[in-house]
Design a protein that fits this description.
Elements: E1 6-9, H1 16-27, E2 29-33, E3 60-61, H2 74-90, E4 94-98, H3 102-109, H4 120-132, H5 134-144, H6 146-151, H7 157-170, H8 174-178, E5 191-195, H9 199-216, H10 218-226, H11 241-248, H12 254-280, E6 285-287, H13 293-300
Parallel strand pairs: 1-4, 1-5, 2-3, 2-4, 5-6
Length: 301
């Protein structure tokens, strides 16, 4: 076989997970998660994780590996992804990365800024400042890193926190770290597969499955809410959590929750995904429909 590793990506509901699973069956593959939400435990159904279904005998790596209150940085993920990649090759298996998180995909193929690990002390101090006074935190960021501050919203808690914690941990602005040369996580030959069906087809697929999906995640979302985690945590921003939590608290009806969730995915998120893929991802193979067995054969030729 010409290629010994793959990236399979595409927007929500494009069929990338099923395609990757079939590809793994045909290539003695190991599937490595490339989705920043599917790393979290307890939301397997909400995040459409393959672990919510039947994975058969295929090894799945980096799915459900951390708790929601212990966010996984992109830097840590890339280190783990590289280890899984090397481990798969070492035992004669085919690494198959699957997921649609743009930052992870760029890290794999283009590399990441060499930002050192941020200490818990710096991270806690930055979060405390942002939580107590967002306006003051943003003004502070403007002083220590005006370039980064100018790229983000004054209300973006997560990115403001990141800029502050990096400066406090390294005494160097985040924007400077980002301008440093990058080294791809995977430098070997890797086949990049983009599944990009018609947008209206995906909207219909999402609408068709949304009612049953919403019913099936009530327990998951309820368990998350019981933990009283900060709304600034990445897991709390996962698609569906806000909408279902509003239903569970009696603020909106179940039907309205479903509709709001569907609109978020089909309008804002899907538009962003298509735009990102066309601007940032350079695939070797494009599948412009829901994949079939014929597409597997095409990839393996």
């Amino acid at each position: 076989m010409k290629h010994k590793s793959y990236i399979v990506t595409g927007p929500t509901a494009s069929g990338k997970s099923d395609f990757a699973h079939t590809l793994a069956e045909r290539t003695n593959g190991v599937i490595i998660n490339c989705d920043s939400v599917q790393v979290y435990k307890g939301i397997e159904t909400l995040s459409a994780s393959p672990l919510a279904g039947n994975t058969g005998n295929i090894p799945y790596r980096l799915f459900s590996i951390t708790n929601g209150d212990a966010p996984l940085s992109a830097g840590i993920w890339t280190q783990m992804a590289r280890r899984e990649y090397d481990d798969a090759l070492a035992i004669g298996k085919t690494p198959i990365f699957v997921g649609g998180t743009g930052f992870y995909l760029k890290a794999l193929t283009e590399g990441m800024s060499p930002i050192p690990a941020v200490s818990d002390v710096a991270r806690t101090a930055a979060r405390k400042l942002v939580t107590e006074d967002l306006t003051t935190a943003y003004e502070y960021l403007q002083k220590i890193d005006p370039v980064w501050a100018g790229k983000i919203s004054q209300n973006d808690r997560q990115r403001i926190t990141r800029g502050i914690e990096v400066f406090q941990a390294t005494n160097r602005p985040l924007s400077e770290w980002q301008s440093a040369p990058r080294v791809p996580v995977i430098t070997d030959d890797i086949t990049k597969i983009l599944i990009l069906p018609d947008r209206e087809l995906l909207r219909q697929r999402i609408a068709d499955r949304m009612p049953e999906l919403a019913k099936s995640v009530l327990k998951e979302v309820g368990a998350i809410l019981e933990k009283n985690w900060s709304p600034d945590l990445p897991i709390m921003k996962a698609d569906g959590i806000l909408e279902i939590s509003r239903f569970l608290s009696g603020k909106i009806s179940f039907d309205v929750a479903i509709d709001l969730w569907r609109i978020k995915i089909c309008n804002h998120n899907m538009k962003h995904q298509y735009t990102w893929f066309k601007a940032n991802f350079r695939p070797d193979i494009v599948i412009d429909h829901i994949p079939t067995d014929a597409d597997i054969e095409r990839v393996l030729q």
